[in-house]
# Entry
Amino acid sequence: LAMPVATQPPLPATAPVTAAASGLIVAPGKALTAAAAVDGCREVTVGGRAATVATADTGGIATLAFAGDGAGPLRTAATATGPATVLAAQSDAKTTVVAVPGDLAEGRLRAALQAGAQGAPVFDATGALIGLVLGRPNEKRAISGLIPTAGYEIGTVAAAAAAAGSTIDPGGGDAVSSGRMVTTWAGRVVAVGCRR
# Structure
């Protein structure tokens, strides 16, 4: 006689936390990203650490709270034209920061951005922070494996950063290389993960 075997229904699949966007640490335990990047997320991570959406302002910027250390002052600029550099995060736990060149005109960014660049900080030629990428890059537009340049709205961050406890310094100064920007900001540009 065969013994009956109890079977259990399969466990529901759990959606992994994926690197959905980029963000910028602006104060101890506070990071900013595009609000649309974390809208509807059941779980959020900042650089692989659990986070919560503390606030989402009307300018399209969300403040994320997480257990983390601090950051120095932010140098911001209101420059709306000229060359720009986007620093995007490439993974969730061990972040690699990639510099993407772009151009600013009439308050919009033109750049060839890949998935994960939503919420990425945008800097002017002097390395001063202008804002965050609000739109989500669409990789389906790739032509022969290359991402064409597209236009993106930029969300200004000075008010949200100040509300999160960041010190804001005025921009200005000499031009810096994108390599120097990566070195300067690498510890503060983070991947933002989302489980929907």
Observations:
- The longest strand covers residues 18-27.
- The chain is about 10% helix and 40% strand.
- The CA atoms of residues 32 and 63 lie 5 Å apart.
